[in-house]
# Entry
Amino acid sequence: MKKIKQNILNEISLTEKSIKQYKEMSKPIAPDCAIGRISRMDAINNKSVVEASLRQAESKLRNLKRVFSKVDTNEFGICLKCKQPIPLKRILIRPESLFCVNCSQ
# Structure
């Protein structure tokens, strides 16, 4: 259990760092910035990709915090859908998992 807690805390820390980076990268591009029409279109496209990554990271962080709050309860490691135990290997690989492999598909 100690290893799982530490793994979750590490993932929370890494995800928070990623969120900060994504927020920095997704700042608007000033229209007076002379980067050219094609470069601006490319920058806008890249911004969309970064914003999608930011949303995924924020969702992962919410799930990690939710899972961490349940570590010391009977609800920890139990699939939200089928109420069966989530395999330990899945918890170690994807600590933010709220569902077992079958229910996550």
Observations:
- Helices lie at 2-25, 37-69, 88-93, 101-104.
- The chain has a mean pLDDT of 89.
- DSSP finds four helices and no strands in the chain.
